[in-house]
Amino acid sequence: MASKPLEEAMRAKLSDALKPDKLEIHNDSHMHSHHKAMEGSTSKETHFRVVITSDAFKAKSQPARHRMVYTLLKDEMAQEGGIHALQLRTRTVDEDARQATEDVASA
């Protein structure tokens, strides 16, 4: 298995700080390697989609939740060849359960 140091660092930081019930990190970099901004980049870890379910988000707005994640990953976002794009879905445990119930009801 190829080493994924950036993804592993993200997982460790988010897990330690947010104690998530659910943490999914999807590396979507392969879908963006042809973009102009990626010309000359050798990094295979630039575009991520992250799903986090954590009660650390309770009573926080979506922008505040996203700022929490950006703050945790500031080094990975600042480094050369680091995170170029980060798509976030942040929910509390209750919000995630409610969404799952709605998904089942609409199926």
CATH topology: GMP Synthetase, Chain A, domain 3
User: What does the overall shape look like?
Assistant: globular
| Main structural class | alpha+beta
The total count of strands amounts to 3
Which strand order do you get reading across the main beta sheet?
Answer: 1-2-3
CATH class assignment: Alpha Beta
CATH architecture: 2-Layer Sandwich
Give, in order, the helices and strands.
HEEHHEH
- In total, how many domains does the architecture comprise? 1
Radius of gyration based on Cα positions:
15 Å
The poorly predicted ranges are: 34-38
Write a brief caption for the model.
This protein is α+β, with helices and mostly antiparallel strands and 107 residues long. The protein is built from four helices and three strands. Strands 1-2-3 form a three-stranded mixed sheet.
Notes on the structure:
The protein has about 110 residues and is an alpha+beta fold. The protein has a single domain, classed as BolA-like (GMP Synthetase, Chain A, domain 3, 2-Layer Sandwich). Helix content is about 40%, strand content about 20%. The chain has a three-stranded mixed beta sheet with strand order 1-2-3.
Task: State the main characteristics.
single chain, 107 residues, alpha+beta, GMP Synthetase, Chain A, domain 3, three-stranded mixed beta sheet, 4 helices, 3 strands, globular
Summarize the topology:
Layout: H1 5-18, E1 22-27, E2 47-53, H2 62-72, H3 74-78, E3 85-91, H4 93-106
Parallel strand pairs: 2-3
Antiparallel strand pairs: 1-2
